[in-house]
Amino acid sequence: MSVEPEVPIVQVEEVRENPVLYKIISSDNHVFTISEHAVKLSKTLWDLITNLGLTAENALDNPIPVENVNGKNMETIVQFCERHKYDEEEPEYTNYIREFVLPEWDRQLLSIDNEELFQLILATNYLDIQKLMDYCCRVIGDMAKDKTPEELRIIYGIPTDAEDDALERSASDSPGPSG
Amino acid sequence: MILNAVENTIEADIPVRAPLTLTTIPNDAIEKILKFCDYKSIMCLRKTSRSLRNFITQTKDSSFEAIQILVSNERIGWGFIKTAYRQDIISTNYHRNGGNGCWLFYGKNPRKSNVILGADWMDLFFQDFEFFLRHQRAPLEVFRLAFGETNDATFERFEKMLKSIIKTPLKTLRLFFDGVGATRIAALIHVFNIPLVQVIENKHKLREPDRDTMKIRRAASFEKTTVFREICSFEDLPEGFRSLSLIRHRLDVLRWYDLQRFWALTIDSKYPVKKCELSFTSIESEEHILASLGLCAFDNWPSGRIWIYRALGRRDNYYVIIMLEPNFASLRLECYENDNDIDL
What are the SKP1 component dimerisation domain coordinates in residue numbering (chain A) (predicted)? Predict the structure, then answer.
């Protein structure tokens, strides 16, 4: 089966010295180019690249398919990784998690609706990008400020206990794989 | 600009599936989100659904703790208290005179108590305290700093060392000082780097000793409405509220804890509380009756919902926790200066 891109390749400018680029194909066949420094922010992708033995010479000829992430989320992720690829490590950051301020650029990037944000969290969790996960969670956590339980239920789409029970019942009533 | 280099905007092409919500994302992500929420938000989230409440209760980082530190010339003791499990107090005492070093006494596990040779008691305490501050993620509900007999040299050294380890504002919703004068409080507030919003003084006046019985040294009684108005008013305070309570009485009300169905009252007393009378608007179970009138000695309260601690091992300092049903109407407590004086 061919994995030829159906849309033009998304080019991401490589502004510094390292010329090694990798191609990533999203679940809906969008193709992205990402630099080596940026891709290292994703533990999953970097492990994959290391295991596949991709080098500077053959990297662009061997696109990496990522089945669990769609193009829209991948676009956000690539932008984020490219933006933060030269960031310094922040070893003490998680100790003062509440004091940390979300940079304005990232806040703009993550100004998307909640459903998309939750999808991005799933994608980030799959690709294991710690920093983006922290930022997404920060945005979601900030939404809870000064809200009543009822407002929180609407904002986060939390089902009521009755809805939860109904979902569980319908799940147990539905026929299993053999039924 | 990297952003401008992205040539194409990709159309959303998301497969149809059940909408994602906070409760359907991975647990790790929910935990992380909770770390970014303030205490009030988490308490609100707990009320949204049963599954989220269970999750929050079981998540380690969301079990908010209180800390109390007691400083005297001879030792520093500190105890961690989990709000949801008040009986679960982990305490450690750092004694000054431990032979050739610091004698460490573990309240929870006395058998493991030991002497750290060549170690200084205060250095050791601050080493541990700094470690705690560095790893603290959730804000404390209560931070209580109490001083026993402390001379100027000990206090100044304590203050100086405290100053050296507190880099960011202390993360606590409420701050209590006990047994310390106004000058020292001012110095400590400065060290804690806390934007003080409001000062609350304990307004409960204690009854004069009852000459007829002679046994009763201190007593306090509260009507429910008074308690709610004067003690629980912190519910209406703005987020990030921190308070300072000047505790001057022998029998002091520290605060109320909302534990879902129950209310719990914590009291710090110089003398053992020996009598507790509770009245309820309705009696629903035998436990109510048992709790409504208790005359008992240490660790022998009639109801399983009442605990007494000798706070940090001090002979003259007691810590009482009484769990109350929501329908309680009034409460009366009495304490006695001498255990032997009690005539049951």
Answer: 130-166
